[in-house]
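Thread: Newbie trying to understand structure tokens

Hi all, I'm a second-year student working on a class project, and my supervisor (Dr. K.) asked me to get a predicted structure for one chain before our next meeting. I've only ever worked with sequences, so writing a 3D structure as a token string is new to me. If someone could post the tokens and maybe explain what I'm looking at, I'd be very grateful. Here's the chain:
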Amino acid sequence: MKKIDIYILKKFLGTFFFAIILILSISVVFDLAEKIDDFLENNASLEAIVFDYYKNFIPYFANLFTPLFVFIAVIFFTSKMAYQTEIIAILSSGVSFKRLMYPYFMGAAILTVFSFVMGAYIIPPANKVRVDFENTYVKNIRETGMSNIHMQLEPGLFVYMRRYSSFRERGDDFSLERIEDKELRFKITAKTVSYDSTDGKWIFKDYVRRDFLPEGGMELTKGEEMDTVVNMKPADFKEERKFFETMTNPELNEYINEQQERGVGNIEPYLIEKHRRVASPFSAFILTLIGVSLASRKVRGGMGLHIGVGIALSFSYILFSTISTTFAINGNLSPVVATWMPNFVFLLIGITLYFRAPK
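---
Reply by user tm_fold:
Sure, no problem. This is what the structure looks like when written as tokens:
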């Protein structure tokens, strides 16, 4: 590395961390002002507020805003260098614009790796504490149940429930079927089911069991209550608020594979989260390319114009990402396409600006 590389890298990282600390300080103040009534009303202790909530709130939002503030940091200090004629001096000394990009991409690489490791392995365990605090002291949100559940517990064993209530810990209109060689072997229906955590068994009430015999007959059994061991847990039928944010990458991949094997639908939010954890950190490279190409040229509007255009592009990127993920959840758009499409579109913008930048 040359002195100019170290100079630019220090400017890059220094501006980024200064900006992120500044915005997080403001965010904490506004968040506290908004939620202080909830804290007092629900008797949250000072220790819980500081160490359970804000200790985990700060890294979560820092990582969430990382791509945005990478862009703003690049725009800010590069524009300042351009108006102090530092960019002109560097290019006039024989350094190509392509070579000038090296320290920028080095800084982007450092922040990309940092953001990925934080988002994939460090922040999810912290989110468990933060989300639990919010559920308890802020919004009083607990897990919600699921409706019209169709699930494969294991090859050939299928379960259906009209509704599972997390608050009552009970499922209604339950059905369990075993299918082998494309033939129905038995079917159990029950008016309600509940889980006995002591014995690890499910209790079927007002049940009817039909065993289909090889010779073509059927054996019918009825009863008021039956205990049985089935490969399912109450957690399989709960939709905890932002559950995917509390899982590390290995846990998230395992959960997705398990749900896909069981034939569970509506796992798009989990797939989006999986791909977002890679696409979002990678966007730092694209936004850095746009930022340098845009801010390295002197324009009549000055630094304010650069920052204004940069903020407009930043919010365009966020809006584009939000719209694409909404289509993935509620429409037929692939989660991979939804998470990577904004990066692809803004990469084209970055390449266009790069070739129009002063050389």
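A couple of things are worth pointing out once you decode it. The first strand starts at residue 146 and ends at 154. The longest helix spans residues 97-138. Feel free to ask follow-ups in this thread.
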